[in-house]
């Protein structure tokens, strides 16, 4: 049985009741009582009090337009509550149509994350933003990444508390079969990463979603590795990492933050050379990771050592350039 409300509880109930009624065009007294866990009599008394409350207008007197109003026939005959006039609440600042649209787009993005698999609260908030904006917000749809299907499968595995299974294209370009306890999904710019306990390596590992091949949800239960087992940083150095020396302008050092976020400005690992250029030692999982670095900073980074790293990048660049070669015409070949 719902208990009697104390003074502070009565005030909190009244403050929560008006927005609730505003969100419901028509609602029965019994439904309101069940929602707030109070008696129907308490709801009727509160509605009666609200109907004679308001904000004094310019005359400092409570005129008809200065008070809340309800459909009294519905209330007295059918025990239903329908607000017909609001005061005070409508004067509160509102989001503009553009602000509401931006927030709704952000919520659409968040709803794709596995940890937000229960999207009821997000959908309710988007509906409130739409109703509460000063004008109808522009209809926007957040672009879904190519990893949307993988995100959905990982969310299913998290809810079922089971492992995921996939073939993974590692940094060396090799496929390996993995069983992983999914712990967290994170994004860096446009790339998504799965962080979890890898049963092949018996350690926490990070996987790019666009490198997962044939991702499946298994019936193998997770081993109970806690989320607290995850390192603070997304990318952690490993004893198997390879050391590479690259040369670039000193002003471009911050662009290497994704590769060595903790040491790009460390003088021990940075050596000044001619002019404003400097050499930096990086640690990568494989030399193939240099392809992404060179592509992202064309003409800025020069690979200095070791020789194998230079060969990998040179071969890759030559293969790319060969795709643009124009075959000679028949007469020219003759």
UniProtKB/TrEMBL annotation:
Every copy of the WYL domain together lies at: 150-217
Q: Residues of the signal sequence?
A: none
Per the database record, which ranges form the PafC HTH domain? 9-131
Q: Where does the WCX domain lie? A: 241-321
Cited InterPro entries: CBASS_pafABC_assoc_protein (IPR051534), PafC-like (IPR028349), PafC_HTH (IPR043839), WCX_dom (IPR057727), WYL_dom (IPR026881)
What Pfam families does this protein's entry cite?
A: HTH_PafC, WCX, WYL
Source domain of life is Bacteria
UniProt-recorded name of the protein: WYL domain-containing protein
What is the source species? Cryobacterium melibiosiphilum
């Amino acid at each position: 049985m719902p208990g009697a409300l104390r003074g502070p509880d009565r005030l909190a109930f009244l403050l929560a009741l008006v927005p609730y009624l505003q969100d419901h065009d028509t609602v029965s007294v019994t439904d309101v009582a069940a929602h707030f866990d109070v008696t129907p009599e308490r709801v009727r008394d509160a509605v009666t009090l609200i109907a004679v409350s308001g904000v004094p207008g310019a005359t400092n007197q409570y005129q008809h337009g200065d008070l809340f109003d309800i459909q009294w026939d519905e209330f007295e005959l059918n025990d239903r509550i329908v607000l017909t006039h609001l005061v005070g609440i409508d004067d509160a600042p509102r989001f503009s149509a553009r602000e509401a649209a931006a927030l709704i787009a952000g919520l659409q993005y968040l709803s794709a994350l596995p940890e937000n698999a229960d999207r009821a609260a997000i959908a309710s908030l988007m509906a409130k933003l739409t109703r509460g904006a000063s004008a109808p917000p522009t209809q926007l749809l957040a672009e879904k990444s190519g990893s949307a299907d993988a995100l959905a499968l990982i969310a299913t595995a998290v809810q079922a508390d089971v492992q995921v299974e996939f073939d993974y294209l590692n940094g060396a370009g090799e496929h390996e079969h993995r069983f992983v306890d999914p712990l967290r999904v994170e994004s860096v710019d446009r790339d998504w990463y799965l962080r979890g306990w890898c049963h092949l390596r018996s350690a926490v590992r990070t996987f790019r979603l666009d490198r997962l091949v044939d991702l499946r949800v298994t019936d193998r239960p997770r081993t109970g590795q806690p989320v607290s087992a995850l390192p603070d940083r997304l990318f952690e150095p490993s004893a198997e990492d390879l050391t590479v020396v690259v040369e670039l302008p000193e002003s471009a050092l911050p662009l290497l933050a994704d590769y060595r976020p903790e040491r790009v400005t460390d003088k021990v690992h940075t050596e000044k050379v001619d002019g404003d250029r400097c050499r930096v030692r990086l640690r990568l999982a494989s030399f193939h990771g240099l392809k992404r670095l060179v592509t992202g900073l064309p003409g800025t980074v020069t690979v200095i050592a070791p020789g194998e790293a230079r060969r990998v990048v040179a071969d890759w660049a030559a293969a790319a350039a060969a795709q643009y070669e124009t075959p000679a015409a028949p007469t020219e070949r003759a």
